[in-house]
Design goal:
Length: 512
């Protein structure tokens, strides 16, 4: 009998078991650990995807006991796990392999003590010296943490066969092109590229992963996926929340660095890339880099015409009054940091010649939604010339959050003798079709790192080319402070200039 191979197995995405290992989380007392990382590990264990020989070590500066750390993690996991309630039997087994290690990030003694603790864990749990180091810390600690791990003998030669060490690095990876290159130079003194896993949690979302299957396993769409049939593409990342307690962070980053340069460019790359020669990490990332290389550089004229920035003022979200950005905690009352950005980009290659990509991201917008909308060209108006018969252009929408799924707008005749044409929607949702919520992004990405699959992580040249696109924008903004901030009310869809930017091209932002 002929067995049809599963193409996803080639990328290490199924059929593989994670090696025995210890996951060490630096910054283990932070929100990311409590709300995302440990719930993800718990769910991996609940579904039998953690290796049998596994342990978790939290590394942070505060003093606390193993028991206190476990108790805090149980409480946060019970609250934030995607599967509720927490299974007491599974948690009781899981927590036996959780430990806490208190140390300053710059302390040589702290890393030496960590090395000894990991050796003891290896002997007790059979984890064989394999390590995942997760850097959930401020970017300034990335180089020093990696250097200290190396000095303590915890970063191995990448060609070592009997054990491995891998480092997951949270964003932001630099704050512009020069700082990203400088950071890469520092960490490459101690790590091989194969050991670096630059995490972007958007790539762990089920719909994003499905983009490759959707595009390249469905000939009906791939045949239309080019400038001949597509009018434009819109990518939206809208959040109804403000910046919360992240005032210090957001004052340094802004939404272009926080969302656009990483998350949105990953989405754009997956939408625009050519078919990879194989479904493995190198081939897929090669094609994504080609997209970034093809994006038209921003000229001074484009910086004025194709980029809009905004900052929210006071307003109303779901009927409740909200403060302006400049009134948020730890924010300057004269801040020029953007909380909204809209861009028009072009991918100058054969497939996408002349097709604009419109990106918008913002805080304090009317709702939380992330989607990719592929707007097809209008049908010729030869047969249906009357306004009520014309219909709207077809739109394919890939929803990333909430309610992950895919929808398509097509035109249909309304029953009755007058026969008007109206758009209708065909809608597929992962949760309702498969009967379960898809795994959280961090579950997939942590597991991928444990099995050594870097497909869904950013490679250094991806980061470099993305910063090459946006550093001129940041430099332009730095040289010309906005005079109209705040320029949109909380609870609206951004500044009027963003609407004018797309309407000048005869298009409009989608109503979400």
């Amino acid at each position: 009998m002929n067995v049809i191979p599963n193409p996803l197995e080639e990328a290490g995405r199924s059929g593989r078991l994670a090696d025995p290992c210890v996951v060490v989380i630096f910054g283990a007392t932070g929100d990311l650990t409590a709300k995302r990382l440990v719930p993800a590990l718990y769910n991996l264990g609940r579904e039998g995807l953690l290796p049998t020989n596994f342990a978790l070590v939290g590394f942070a500066r505060r003093e606390k006991s193993h028991e206190q750390f476990r108790s805090e993690l149980k409480e946060s996991t019970a609250k934030h796990s995607r599967v509720k309630p927490i299974d007491e039997r599974i948690w009781a087994h899981f927590q036996e392999s959780i430990f806490y290690h208190a140390s300053e990030f710059e302390s040589d003694d702290g890393y030496a003590a960590l090395a000894q603790r990991l050796k003891e864990i290896d002997a007790r749990f059979g984890t064989r010296g394999n390590r995942v180091f997760y850097l959930s810390v401020q970017p300034k600690y990335f180089p020093v943490t990696i250097e200290k791990l190396h000095r303590a003998g915890l970063i191995y030669d990448p060609h070592q066969k009997d054990k491995w060490s891998r480092v997951i690095i949270e964003k932001p990876f630099g704050h512009d092109l020069s700082s990203a290159n400088e950071l890469q130079q520092k960490i490459s003194n101690y790590l091989d590229e194969s050991q670096i896993y630059r995490i972007d949690h958007y790539l762990g979302k089920e719909t994003v992963q499905n983009l490759l299957v959707f595009r390249f396993a469905n000939s009906i769409f791939e045949a239309l996926w080019n400038y001949k049939h597509i009018d434009h593409v819109q990518i939206t990342v809208a959040e109804d929340i403000g910046i919360g307690t992240r005032g210090h962070f957001f004052e340094e980053e802004g939404i272009l660095r926080d969302i656009v340069q990483n998350h949105m460019m990953q989405l754009l790359s997956l939408v625009a890339m050519e078919p990879p020669v194989r479904l493995n990490a190198a081939s897929i990332r090669d094609e994504k880099v080609k997209v970034l290389q093809s994006i038209r550089p921003m000229t001074p004229e484009m910086l004025e015409r194709c980029v809009v920035r905004g900052q929210y003022g006071e307003g109303f979200i779901y009927g409740e009054k909200t403060a302006a950005y400049r009134e948020e905690k730890n924010v300057s009352p004269l801040s020029a940091v953007e909380t909204y950005v809209a861009l028009q980009l072009y991918v100058d290659n054969w497939r996408w010649a002349g097709v604009p990509f419109y990106l918008r991201a913002g805080k304090r917008l009317p709702k939380k939604v992330t989607e990719i909308a592929i707007a097809f060209k209008d049908a010729p108006g030869v047969l249906f010339q009357k306004k009520e018969m014309h219909g709207d252009p077809n739109v394919l929408v890939i929803r990333i959050q909430p309610d992950e799924g895919i929808a398509m707008r097509i035109n249909c005749k309304v029953p009755g003798p007058t026969s008007p044409v109206l758009p209708v929607k065909m809608d597929f949702r992962y949760g309702s079709y498969f009967g379960a919520a898809p795994p959280e992004a961090y579950e997939r990405l942590i597991w991928d790192c444990m099995v050594g699959d870097s497909t869904l992580f950013a490679r250094t040249d991806e980061v470099e080319h993305s910063w090459r696109i946006f550093t001129p924008v940041l430099d332009h903004w730095k040289a010309s402070s906005p005079s109209d901030f705040p320029n949109y009310r909380a609870g609206t869809w951004g500044p009027k200039e963003a609407t004018e930017m797309i309407e000048k091209e005869g298009r409009a932002w989608r109503l979400l």
